[in-house]
Write a structure and sequence with these properties.
The structure holds 2 protein chains of 2 kinds.
Chain A (H helix, E strand, L loop, with lengths): L3 E6 L9 H17 L3 E7 L15 E6 L8 H15 L3 E5 L2 H4 L2 H7 L3 E6 L1 E3 L5 E6 L4 E7 L4 E5 L17 E2 L9 E7 L14 E5 L14 H15 L2 E4 L1 H5 L26 E7 L5 H6 L3 E8 L13 E4 L2 H13 L1
Parallel strand pairs in A: 1-2, 1-4, 2-3, 3-10, 4-9, 5-9, 12-13, 12-14, 14-15, 15-16
Antiparallel strand pairs in A: 6-7, 7-8
Chain B lengths: L5 E5 L2 E3 L7 E4 L2 E4 L7 E3 L1 H16 L4 E8 L1 H11 L6 E6 L8 H13 L9 E6 L10 H8 L5 E10 L5 E7 L3 E7 L4 E5 L11 H16 L2 E2 L7 E7 L8 E3 L4 H13 L3
Parallel strand pairs in B: 1-6, 1-8, 6-7, 7-13, 8-12, 9-12
Antiparallel strand pairs in B: 2-5, 3-4, 9-10, 10-11
The chains are: A alpha/beta, B alpha/beta.
Chain lengths: 339, 271
């Protein structure tokens, strides 16, 4: 018989479980219900007991690892904490969010428990055996996998389940002692753009993708990178969208081309960038290569503004393509959003 | 800045990102159609790791750089003809299956064994570099498992920057959610660093570096150890291309005003 452990952690504030962790709890509840398996939730935090109320009514046993060392996301301490929780729970299936914090350690934890791991899980199914869906070759090939080996660790991509939202309650957390190794790494902080300069917003409904066409010569024979930058940033601020970019646009900075100074490789979507999940996506001035399509794999509704009526990537992949000058459209769009 | 480093970069080879991929199933499980004849490149994020490693080695005289790569010998040789012209390194090839479908645990064990077999490796100065995820399996676990196999207790992923200090400690910037970087300071090597894009551009081809690399590369390829990768109970139920065809409405005659108005309505609508 299977037994399920869901591992969770706190957000930056340390006062709440991350939304992604709560999504993993939902997956755990669903899986445990389907398999009629016992469910355990493990919490890694400075004070795990203080966070237990959020998941107290999930029908799970609660385990916690607490201490100042676990306030910081760090390989050595997080791996030790997760290992201790797994050894205590003795679960056959371990679910966890594919967050930066847990993606950093969970393969190592699986190795320490002689287990196996699969990551970037987009869906879980199966009745007789557990079947996990994930993508290969940067979201270009979809596969369903299963394993007989246990424990089987599965890291779940964000946005694949609703965040658990059960009623708050009281339940005792069993605190697990951790034998910490010597900690040679100290987390000294987070480096982030200023609040009004932050253009990457994972929770935004809309992803706006800027392509290399923004810094190419326009009909007057000139490049208008400054104007492009202003139009894009105005739109991002007014629509609260997240900003993505094609690789070619980001790379132009390193090649001495015209650049949009607020773009970094972190904005990049596609083959060597991210594949974010948003309800809607609007691409502008992107040209037709498969890497751009890859970056859009998990976008719900897709629209594009392009001057190329024959652009190959938009056909069959975008819902609507406007053949128009993005400079003109975005200027009007910003006017309307501002009014 | 006098510390000589020992940097091992783990890098796979993947189909050129512009190639059309089609899955097939053979006697050994899933693979890609015509996989052996598809143009291949060094895995993009691992390539970033290689360039960063070379940049770091250049700043620390006496440093040594190895490139450990697993793949069919013939394919490795083909890709290395280009990669060898970028930066100076010693190739440690492992002759094995190509592609993203073999199990990551077996892959990591094979690569860890190859690293352990490198003669004269000083663990106290050792950095294991690689891409934080590959463009094939894309699991982001192989490097971490290698670190565990080698008992390396400090690991960093999504790395964009490393700054080594005179006392041997180093500061690392790792990507975290929301377009931010987590800043950490580690006391010293050894450490595992899974790189994102880093900050360095792809070096220009340098035929002299290529000639120098080739002297050791060809003999290394000839004596590459052959490995078989166990499945570790991994079973593929299905492997398929996504059903991605949408009915696309192409609007050629709308004015910017009309398009903007339609987009505003669309953005405001709950999906």
């Amino acid at each position: 018989m299977e037994s399920i452990l869901v591992l969770t952690h706190t957000d930056e504030s340390g006062s709440a479980l991350t939304k992604h962790s709560l999504e993993a709890v939902t997956a755990g509840v669903e899986l445990a219900t389907g398999l009629e398996a016992p469910l355990t939730i493990g919490i890694v935090a400075a004070d795990a007991s203080a966070l237990a109320s959020t998941v107290a009514n999930a029908g799970a046993k609660l385990l916690g690892v607490s201490g100042l060392a676990f306030a910081q996301p760090r390989f050595a301490s997080d791996a030790a904490a997760c290992e201790a929780l797994c050894r205590t729970a003795q679960a056959t299936i371990v679910l966890a969010p594919q967050s930066a914090r847990f993606a950093r350690v969970m393969a190592a934890v699986a190795h320490r428990l002689n287990g196996v791991i699969d990551t970037h899980i987009a869906a879980l199914a199966g009745t007789d055996s557990i079947e996990a869906t994930r993508w290969f070759y940067r979201q270009r090939i979809e596969a369903v996998v299963t394993r007989a080996a246990r424990p089987w660790f599965l890291l779940l991509d964000s946005g694949t389940h609703a965040a658990y939202a059960g009623e708050a309650g009281n339940q005792r957390v069993e605190e697990i002692a951790v034998d910490l190794p010597a900690l040679r790494t100290e987390v000294t902080g987070i480096r982030a753009p200023k609040q009004d300069e932050q253009t990457i917003r994972p929770d935004a409904k809309l992803l706006f993708v800027a392509g290399a066409g923004w810094t190419k010569k326009q009909p007057d024979g000139e490049i208008h990178a400054d104007q492009a930058g202003k139009l894009i940033l105005d739109f991002i601020r007014r629509s609260s969208a997240s900003l993505g970019s094609s690789k070619s646009l980001v790379d132009q900075g390193g090649e001495g081309g015209s650049v949009l100074p607020f773009l970094t490789h972190m904005n990049q979507v596609g083959q060597t960038g991210s594949t974010p999940r948003h309800a809607k996506g609007l691409s502008t001035c992107c040209h037709g290569e498969e890497p751009h399509v890859v970056g859009w794999r998990f976008i719900g509704e897709r629209r594009a503004i392009s001057l190329d009526a024959n652009c190959g990537w938009t056909r069959g992949k975008a819902d609507v393509v406007y053949i128009a000058d993005a400079f003109q459209v975005m200027a009007k769009l910003n006017e309307l959003l501002n009014s | 800045m006098g510390t000589a480093l020992q940097i091992v970069v783990c890098a796979g080879i993947v189909p050129d990102p512009l190639q059309t991929l089609e899955p097939t199933t053979g006697p050994n499980g899933p693979g890609l159609k015509n996989e052996m004849v598809l143009p291949a490149v060094l895995d993009p994020w691992a390539a970033c790791a290689l360039y960063e490693a070379a940049g770091l080695a250049a700043k620390h005289p006496g440093s040594k750089l190895w490139l450990v790569a697993l793949g069919p010998k013939a394919k490795l040789q083909q890709v290395m003809m280009t990669v060898a012209q970028k930066v100076a390194f010693e190739l440690v090839p492992v002759d094995g299956p190509i592609g993203g479908f073999p199990d990551a645990h077996s892959t990591a064990a094979a690569l860890a064994s190859a690293i352990e077999a490198i003669s004269g490796l000083d663990r106290a100065q050792l950095f294991i570099f690689g891409g934080w995820e590959s463009a094939s399996r894309g699991a982001g676990v192989t490097l971490q498992l290698i670190g565990e196999c080698l008992d390396i207790a400090d690991q960093f992923f999504g790395v964009d920057q490393i700054d080594l200090r005179d006392d041997g400690s180093f500061e690392v910037l790792e990507r975290v959610e929301g377009g931010k970087h987590q800043v950490s300071v580690c006391a010293s090597a050894p450490a595992v660093l899974g790189w994102a894009t880093g900050n360095l551009a792809e070096p220009r081809n340098n035929p002299q570096i290529g000639m120098s690399n080739m002297r050791t590369m060809m003999p290394a390829l000839q004596r590459a150890k052959t490995v078989a990768l166990e499945a570790n109970s991994l079973e593929y139920i299905s492997v398929s291309l996504p059903k991605q065809q949408r009915t696309t409405r192409v609007e050629k005659n709308m004015t910017p005003d009309e398009i903007a108005a339609e987009l505003v309505a669309w953005i405001g609508k709950d999906s």
